[in-house]
Design brief:
The complex is a heterodimer. Chain A is α+β, with helices and mostly antiparallel strands. Chain A is built from 19 helices and 29 strands. In chain A, α8 packs parallel to α9, α13 runs parallel beside α14 and α16 packs across α17. The radius of gyration of chain A is 28 Å and the shape is globular. Chain B folds into 2 domains: about 80 residues, Ubiquitin-like (UB roll) (Roll); about 90 residues, Orthogonal Bundle (DNA polymerase, domain 1). In chain B, α4 packs across α5. Classes of the chains: A alpha+beta, B alpha+beta. At the A-B interface, α1 and α16 of A face α2, α3 and α5 of B. Chain B: Keywords: 2Fe-2S, Iron, Iron-sulfur, Metal-binding, Oxidoreductase.
Chain lengths: ~800, ~180
């Protein structure tokens, strides 16, 4: 078949508009709309004593000012706890506008609406808010100490205590031939999409309907939240995610205060209102991720096989918990990675701090879990004097052990049962790809140039494609155009292309005829959202099922017309034909016309379907019982549980002992996401993930001072990798299809980022012979570590004496 | 040289005349209007994107008299009389009613050098300006590639395919120059 496109590196269909400046991002919409700007808290923790807007009222062009006092009904109540969990015993969320207390710098206090953003900011600048400062909690250690409380009624700062165990860990540890205990830290970074958040709202008073555009990863749920908060019937609200300039997790959180306040203002003013987040706002009022303190105790035998693992994580959730304990759960459950751990106990204490909220950032807790597990492997190898790859190999789940049940409960409330994989295969490929066994020669070469070289590796398993469901709708028009829609949103993953590939392959039509729409509640009202590498798995399978439904109907109708046996029919290049009988065919577009019995011939093609043209039995109704007019089908994919993708990364770092600059000179990725729809796009996802992984390992951190002021809230100071910081990446693929879904696919979106911090920490430790216990690490920190006489040396370095 | 000028009021206005993508455009705007907002809001050319508004990310890059410029750091009044090229102006008329993409646009599509596409206009304009300023007949070096992509931020692609696209575009332009 010529239309088999599944698995091909098809060029992206979204690119034509994006490379010519015809993309339609949030701030490109609504020219002439009123602009909103916000007065945000300059304090990390304070009581709001007074808001004086008087001076702003003189600003020409000011339209409205809103404070908490102006919020009514559900808008005056706290924002929703999106994902409740029984172990989240003290959930706390903010208000759309501060209600008496602010809990982090950047929390919105006043919304100003004016004729344009310049004027709105002029007015916002003149508003005087009087605060009474309160004690501030910054960092997990301060939160644990609880000398001050973020929320008065949560004196220990603990929002949740998440606990899972697969056996009795204490006796298992006591019986272990060897044990090790250590503590390590990982710091905050953030998604930092190049486009910030943004909302545009238009109220049609005559129609009593609201149209909202939001740069979101979850338009259907934003819609539901707006309807609930603004007390509108769901059918009067539509939400559309236009072109979205990157998400990486931050835009899955909703409703953001602005997503409610902008529509509220649009309704009250009867005018279009827009807010486009600026970069500083994004730093101080969106979301961050990753900060944890990890206390690990591991028991193992003489061969390095783990017998018991006990992990206690202190997780910084920031000021509020709108996204529940998803990140802690993901860390807790994905920590075990590709390894068979006989007895495992994990406790994650999720603590409040007076900082920006912590919600999923690409990886969503997995990079931390991987960092815990992989650094544990490195410790065991070092303790026993074994090769780090060998220790990993001895602990891997083997291909004959699938499905492998970890006896844990995942973020979707379902069991962590790995569906398929070949982890020894990944490791073998990685060792070959990076040249692991030739590290000695690389090291000697670097030494001859006065550099220190180290290699490191990290393996991961990533639960992808969690439910509950996604849906797809496929419709063939009389023109032959195939419309595909799914409610899930896109932020650059190429969904217009991959879903078109899937539908074109399933239906047997040229991809040029397929048009994909995502994230538009007018087209598809039921969806969950884009997160957890789930789009291809969930919506990919949903649109495939919908296409199969259309195909079945098309063949049924065509069989009738062609007087053929449906089993003898096939669809290729948009033509339904009798297999092996050239000429016995009917175009799919004609089938689409015939599928809708007509009275009126509105165009030439329609004549074929009108009541006097169409042959049919007088004994049957034109639309058969149980049938419906139109060549379309809607279907849903709801998985029994998540799929589990996997991979292995290795990094080679070179360190200059004069400057302690850390240079990643080689980076290797072996990747398994099951069947691949578009290898070009998957590779692009890996590249981007690795860049974020390198950023998280070496450059990016949220530098809060003790007062809760974010010291680096700009691209001048928060160091995201430019091209010069990203190494060349060697990629090898492995495909172990998932048995759980019709297409055999697993997600690929987050994979690239997960093992970066662990692999690079391992490589640096290998190079310098000092224990790396806190990531990211800067040249200055490495210098300090090397000068610190009490810094722990690795066994390997003590034995070889190198490096000194 | 010391020039004494009256400090303009933020709400004072000037009429700015520029040639944008070969078309004469004029608008009366407050003197504090930055070029990126002028292009986007006053002229309706929304292809130029603002990623940071402090001159670091490069998403807003446009050409002013052929040189790449961060339009978020330039006031509209500063480009009075200049030739401005935005991403919308990179393609050329094919004289048959259609458009021919610039080689760098073609290369971005061919090499999957964009994902969300938000930073893309800035990369395209920066790279196009750089490629046009060099001798197209010369084979491009890795140092040149690094230089051309090194000043813009992208959060999606990890840059590998952007570099590939630069090589691809340079090769196309070299072919065309022969």
């Amino acid at each position: 078949m010529t239309t088999k496109l599944f698995g091909e590196p098809v060029r992206r269909r979204e690119d034509a508009r994006l490379i010519t400046g015809r993309g339609r991002y949030l701030d490109d919409i609504g020219a002439g709309a009123l602009a909103a700007a916000f007065v945000r808290s300059p304090h990390a923790h304070a009581r709001v004593l007074d808001v004086d807007v008087e001076a702003a009222l003189d600003v020409e062009g000011l339209v409205a000012v809103y404070t908490y006092e102006d919020l009514t009904g559900p808008m005056a109540e706290p924002l929703p706890v999106l994902i409740p969990h029984p172990q989240l015993h003290a959930p706390r969320t903010g208000y759309p506008l501060a209600n008496g207390v602010v809990n982090h710098v950047g929390e919105p206090v006043v919304m100003v609406v004016a004729t344009d953003r310049y004027v709105a900011e002029d007015a916002a600048e003149r508003i005087v808010v009087t605060y009474e400062e309160l004690p501030v909690v910054v960092g997990v250690d301060a939160a644990r100490e609880a000398r001050a409380a973020v929320h008065e009624d949560v004196p220990d700062n603990v929002a949740a205590r998440h606990h899972q165990e697969t056996g009795d860990v204490e006796p298992a540890l006591a019986a272990a031939p060897h044990t090790l205990s250590f503590t390590q830290y990982i710091e905050r970074s953030a998604c930092m999409p190049l486009e910030g958040k943004g909302v545009h709202a238009r109220w049609d008073a005559d129609d009593a309907s609201l149209r909202v555009y939001s740069s979101t990863q979850a338009s259907t749920s934003v819609r539901a939240a707006i309807a609930a908060k603004l007390e509108l019937s769901l059918d009067r609200v539509e939400v559309i995610a236009p072109d979205v300039g990157g998400g990486f997790g931050v835009k899955i959180v909703h409703p953001w205060p602005e997503e409610l306040l902008v529509p509220m203002a649009a309704i009250r003013l009867g005018r279009e209102v827009k807010w486009a987040e600026d970069r500083r706002e994004h730093f101080i009022s969106s979301a961050h991720e990753r900060q944890q303190r990890q206390e690990i105790t591991v028991g193992y035998d003489d061969d390095g096989r783990i017998t018991a693992l006990d992990v206690h994580v202190w997780h910084d959730n920031g000021a509020y918990t709108p996204y529940g304990i998803i990140v802690p759960i993901v860390t807790a459950t994905q920590l075990v990675g590709p390894y068979a751990i006989p007895v495992y106990r994990v406790v994650v204490e999720s603590v409040f701090t007076n900082t920006v909220i912590v919600t999923p950032y690409r990886g969503a807790g997995r990079p931390q879990g991987c960092y815990a597990m992989e650094r544990t492997m490195d410790r065991i190898a070092d303790d026993l004097g074994l090769d780090r790859a060998e220790v990993r190999r001895r602990n891997l789940i083997t291909p004959d052990q699938f499905p492998y049940d970890h006896h844990l409960t995942f973020q979707d409330g379902r069991p962590v049962i790995y569906d398929s994989g070949d982890y020894p295969g990944l490791l073998d490929k990685l060792v070959a790809l990076v040249g692991w066994d030739e590290a000695g020669a690389l090291r000697a070469d670097a030494r001859s140039r006065g550099k220190m070289l180290g290699v490191g590796m990290a393996l991961y398993v990533e639960g992808t494609g969690p439910g509950p469901y996604e849906g797809g709708h496929v419709q063939v028009l009389g023109s032959g155009k195939v419309l595909v829609s799914t409610g899930l949103t896109s932020q650059g993953q190429g969904h217009e292309t991959v879903f078109a590939q899937i539908v074109a392959s399933e239906l047997g039509v040229p991809i040029e005829d397929v048009e994909v729409h995502t994230g538009d509640t007018r087209r598809f009202g039921y969806a969950v959202g884009t997160f957890a590498s789930r789009a291809a798995v969930m919506s990919g399978n949903a649109v495939a099922l919908a296409a199969r439904g259309v195909r079945e109907k098309a063949i049924r109708i065509a069989a009738d017309v062609l007087e053929a046996n449906p089993e003898d029919l096939e669809i290729d290049e948009g033509l339904v034909q009798v297999r092996g009988t050239p000429g016995a065919s009917i175009p799919l577009r004609t089938v689409a016309v015939l599928s809708n019995p007509l009275r009126y011939a509105f165009d030439e093609a329609a004549k074929q379907a009108t009541q006097f043209a169409k042959a049919g039995s007088d004994d049957k109704p034109p639309v058969a019982e149980g049938d419906a007019p139109g060549l379309e089908h809607r279907d849903y994919y709801s998985p029994i549980r998540s799929t589990f993708a996997s991979g292995a990364h290795a990094a080679v770092v070179e360190i200059d002992p004069a400057t302690w600059e850390i240079d990643v000179v080689r980076y290797a990725v072996v990747h398994d996401c099951g069947n691949v729809v578009n290898p070009m796009i998957v590779e692009g996802q890996v590249h981007g993930g690795v860049a974020q992984g390198v950023g998280g390992a070496l450059y990016e951190r949220m530098a809060y001072d003790a007062d809760g002021q974010l010291q680096n809230a700009s691209f001048m100071d928060f160091l995201m990798p430019y091209a010069s910081e990203v190494p060349d990446i060697a990629i090898d693929h492995q495909e172990t299809p998932s048995p759980l879904n019709p297409l055999g696919i697993k997600g690929a979106g987050e994979a690239g980022v997960i093992p970066g911090t662990a692999a690079i920490a391992s490589a640096i430790e290998d190079a310098v012979g000092r224990r790396i216990t806190s990531m990211p690490i800067s040249p200055t920190e490495l210098y300090d570590l090397m000068r610190n006489e009490t810094a722990e040396r690795t066994q390997a370095s003590l034995q070889t004496g190198v490096p000194a | 040289m010391t020039t004494s000028i009256d400090p303009p009021q933020v709400d004072s206005e000037r009429t700015v005349s520029v040639t944008v993508n070969g078309v004469h455009r004029e608008a009366t705007v407050p003197v504090r209007r930055v070029l990126s907002d002028f292009l986007r809001d006053d002229l309706g050319l929304t292809g130029t994107h603002v990623g940071c508004a402090h001159g670091v990310c490069g998403s807003c890059t446009v050409m002013v008299d052929g040189d790449p410029v961060r339009s978020c750091l330039v006031l509209a009044v500063q480009v009075q009389g200049a030739q401005v090229t935005t991403v919308e102006g990179l393609a050329r008329d094919d004289h048959q009613g259609g458009q021919v993409l610039h080689p760098v646009q073609e290369a971005f599509r061919e090499c999957h050098a964009l994902q969300c596409g938000f930073c893309t206009p800035g990369f395209l304009v920066t790279i196009a300006a750089g490629l046009e300023a060099r001798d197209a007949a010369e084979e491009i070096t890795e140092e040149e590639v690094d230089e051309l992509v090194g000043g813009n931020l992208c959060r999606c692609t990890g840059y590998a395919n952007i570099k590939k696209a630069v090589r691809h575009a340079a090769a196309t332009m070299r072919e065309d120059a022969r």
